[in-house]
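User: Hi! Is it possible to get a structure for several chains at once, not just one? Here's what I have:
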Amino acid sequence: MNDAADPLVPVLAVVGTGLIGGSFAAALRRVGQVGRVLGVGRNPASLRRAQALGLIDEAVDLPQAAARADLIFLATPISAMAPALRALAPVLRPDTLLTDAGSTKSDVARLAQEALGERYLQFIPGHPIAGSEMTGPEAADPLLYHGRKVVLTPFDDTPGLAQHRLIRVWEACGARVQLMRPDAHDRALGCVSHLPHFLAAAYMAQVVRAEDADTRLGLAGTGFRDFTRIAAGSPEVWRDIFFSNRAAVLGELADFERVLGRWRAALEDDSHPETLEAMLEQAALARRFWGGRNQMS
Amino acid sequence: MNDAADPLVPVLAVVGTGLIGGSFAAALRRVGQVGRVLGVGRNPASLRRAQALGLIDEAVDLPQAAARADLIFLATPISAMAPALRALAPVLRPDTLLTDAGSTKSDVARLAQEALGERYLQFIPGHPIAGSEMTGPEAADPLLYHGRKVVLTPFDDTPGLAQHRLIRVWEACGARVQLMRPDAHDRALGCVSHLPHFLAAAYMAQVVRAEDADTRLGLAGTGFRDFTRIAAGSPEVWRDIFFSNRAAVLGELADFERVLGRWRAALEDDSHPETLEAMLEQAALARRFWGGRNQMS
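Assistant: Yes, the chains can be modeled jointly so their relative placement is included. Here is the combined structure:
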C-alpha cells in the first residue's frame, strides 16, 4: 500500500495530544510512517507544549482536521468524543479513517453511529491496552504501544480495506492487533482494568479517611505503592470509563463482593486456616502463571 | 560501642535464610558489621544455596545458634517462630539479643513471652517494611532494607542498651527505625499492607474463575500487573499474617466493604456522575501526594 517515500499516514490528526495521542504520533514518526501531524485540543497550553516537544506540527480546529487528515485519532475522555465527532461529521472527507483510544467500546460504537450518521463506517473503534497514570504531552512515549495489544471492534459491515489500513498503522507502532466484539471487550476490560481501578481508588479513599492516616501512610511500602498506583489516574477519564461501562463494572463488582464475602468467611473461621491458605495458593499460582506467560512480574 | 576491627555483630544467626533473612545477613556483610553468619532452616537445599551464595558461613541447628550467636534474627513464617523460640530458650546465652521480621507484632510479642519465659526481654519484636513477592536465598539483596523503615515494638521494660544495639544494627543496614506499640503497628499494617494483599488475592481468584478467563487475562495490562503483584506472595507466609492479625484485618475489611458500598451507590446513580468523579479525585490526589512524599510513583 505504500513505499518508503510514502508514509502509511500522510496527514494524521490527533484529537487530544496527551499521553495517548502524543505517544501515537510519536510512534508513527519514529518509524517514518507519518507525514504531517495536526493536533486538536481543548487546552492551548497543552497544544503548545505538544508542538514544542515535536509531537505535532501544528494546532488546528476540528473542521480543519476533518478537511485535511487521512487518519483522525480520538484520544480524549469518552464524554468529549460525541461533540468532537459531531463537529467532524459535516466536513469529513469520504476517504478519511477515524479511530479512537477509548477504554470502552460498545458506548463509543453507539455514539459514533449517532454522531456520524451514514458515515459511521469510516470509524473503527479501538482500544490500545497501554497507558500510565501520568498525563499530558510530556508523558508521551514513542514506545508506549510497543509489544502491547490493541483491540479493534469493527462494525459488522466495516470495509475490509479500512480495517486493514488501521491494522497496519497499529502494527507500525509495534502493537499487536486483536479483533473483538465490543461487548466482549467491555466485559473483559470491566474485569481486568475497570474493576481494579475502582477497588484501588475506593481503598485509597478509605486509607486517607482514617484518623491516623499519616501514621498508616508512613508505613506503606512497595506492596501498597503498586496496589494503589492506578488510583492516581485522571478522575475525569475514569469517571467516563465507569459510566460508559457501568453495567459490566457493576456486574464484576457484585461478583467481587460475593467472592470477598467467601474470603472473609475463610478468615473468620480460625479453626481451619488451611481453607484460606488454599485460596491464597490458588491466587498466587494464577498470578505467577500470568506473570510468566506475559513476561511481566 | 565498637571500632573498625570489631563488627556490631560478631556472630549472627539467621533463622530462615530466604529473601528476608538472607538480605539481612548480606546487608550487614556489605558494611563489614558482621563476623560470622550461622544459618538455620528447615530446608537443607535452601541452606546449601544460601551458603553457596555467601549469605551464611555455615548451617547449624537451633541449639548451636543459641549457644554461639550474639544476635539471632528470626525470618520465618510467624507460625514457625514459637517452636523456634522454644528450642532456643533452654540454651540461650544471657547476652544474646533476639529479634524477628514478622509482619505482625502483638502476636509475636505474646508468643515470645510464652516461649522465652523470663528471658523474653532478650527479644525485641521488629518488622522491616520491605519485601518482594520473590522468595528464597537467590532473592536476597544487600540493599533490600536501604532507605526502608523498620518498626521495633519493644516491651515496656526492654533494656535501653539492648534496644540501642538493635537500632544500630538496623541503621547499619541503611534502614530507618521507628518505635511503636505493637497494637498500633498491627492496625496500621492491617490497613496499608494486609488488606491490600487480601483484596488483590481475592480479586485474582475471581478473575481466574471466569469462564473466559484466558481472554480476560490476555487483555490485562500494566494496571492489572501492579494491582495484583502482591497476590503472588507466599501463601504460607500470608496465611500466618492474616490469622495472626485477624481482628485488625477483619476490621479494615469491614470498613472497606462499607466504603465500597458507597462507591457502588455512586456508580449506580448515573444521574450524578460528578459524585463519583469527586470521589475519584480525592483518591487520585491522596495517591499522588503519597507518591510525591515518598518518592515512589
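Chain A has a mean pLDDT of 94. DSSP finds twelve helices and nine strands in chain A.

User: Great, thank you!
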